[in-house]
Write a structure and sequence with these properties.
single chain, alpha/beta, 2 domains, six-stranded mixed beta sheet, three-stranded antiparallel beta sheet, 11 strands
């Protein structure tokens, strides 16, 4: 069976040393041909994408089904080494081969379009603008990705390490990484610290926990040879998700008693409470989760079994010095790991 050929009138440009071809094509033509290469998971050139966010895809799907389309270009990379793209007299042509076009920018939009097309075939007839490169290296793809996302919306500065494996020094990387994580802790609605982080220059009364507290508590652990790396939790996304899941596991128990949202009672929005929790995470909980090969909220809750009688509030800590309060929070969490162990009568030998 003959392979279908696609041809489009295109605009040929060169960005730095990277040739690129911009043209419009139908959604239904691109959907079968694209794929996503995730950094840290897929061992191939050009793998710079993060794992897809299902909530964002659902939002985009609704946006498209409401009759909207995208004006910004999708940045793509032709990766099929057996079949090259051809350009002549302003016409670009290539074979219609599934999974031959890697997405550099626009993976969530394409996933949203794909789901929308499954519900309404008319979506497939929509035109989208694409910019196609060919055989990009990971470094070229990363430069494009960072250029687009840095200019259009803020992305974590510390992603440069995940993409290139290079950094200026451990201290700079650690501070950038934690600041990036803190911003998402503050901005993501799923975060237990949503709108609770106080950044330098914030107005009086905004936020509860200082950025400096988060930096000091995590600095040694996010370094390339730190605690997280020791347990192979290296990427920005994984480190951020670990911290969110950990504190959401604790928040679950404090929410049951309506304590978490009380700034006066919640010890984890204070410097000593946050630091003590991080001590427990890095010294005890990480190894427990690694044994289970899971860092989900449910797994963390299964390790930490907090009962109403064991919950500690800031009222009980505020008269202690910071070092003592920090130690007490760590001990509270450790005690509840021990209490969640089976009794000896429950073991099988």
């Amino acid at each position: 069976m003959a392979i279908k050929k696609l041809s489009y009138q295109c605009l040929e440009t060169v960005f730095g040393d990277i040739p690129a071809f911009t043209f419009s094509m139908k959604v239904k033509e691109l959907i079968p041909m694209y794929y996503v290469a995730v950094r840290g998971r897929d061992n191939e050139e050009g793998a710079v994408q993060r794992v897809l966010n299902s909530r964002r895809i659902t939002s985009i799907k609704k946006y498209v089904l409401d009759g909207n389309i995208f004006f910004s270009s999708f940045i793509l990379n032709w990766t099929n080494s057996d079949k090259k793209i051809k350009v002549k007299d302003g016409i670009i042509s290539f074979d219609f081969i599934p999974a031959s076009i890697q997405v550099i920018d626009g993976q969530h939009r394409l996933a949203g379009l794909e789901e929308a097309m499954q519900e309404d075939s008319k979506v497939g007839e929509m035109d989208i603008l694409v910019t196609l490169c060919e055989s990009l290296t990971t470094q070229q793809a990363a430069k494009i990705f960072l250029n687009i996302n840095t200019e259009q919306k803020p992305v974590p500065k510390s992603l440069i390490y995940d993409l290139f494996g290079e950094l200026e020094d451990d201290e700079t990387h650690a501070i950038n990484r934690i600041t990036d994580i803190a911003r998402e802790l503050n901005d993501l609605e799923i975060s237990p610290f949503y709108k609770l982080i106080k950044f330098p220059g914030s107005p009086r009364g905004v936020g509860s926990i200082e950025l400096s507290t988060i930096v000091q508590s995590l600095k040694e652990h996010v370094k390339p040879a730190g605690t997280f790396a020791k347990y192979n939790v290296r990427t920005y996304d994984n480190q951020r998700n670990l911290i969110i899941n950990f504190f959401n596991g604790i928040k679950y128990y404090y929410d049951k008693e309506n304590i978490w949202n009380s700034k006066a009672k919640n010890p984890f929005v204070k410097a000593a409470g946050f630091a003590g929790a991080i001590d427990f995470l890095t010294e005890k909980l990480l190894s427990q989760c690694v044994e289970r090969k899971s860092f989900t909220v449910d797994t963390i809750k299964s390790v930490i079994s907090l009962e109403k009688s064991t919950l500690i509030t800031w009222d009980e800590l505020k008269n202690h010095d910071g070092k003592t309060a920090r130690k007490r929070v760590k001990e509270l969490l450790e005690e509840n790991v021990l209490s969640s162990l089976p009794s000896q009568d429950e073991y099988e030998f």
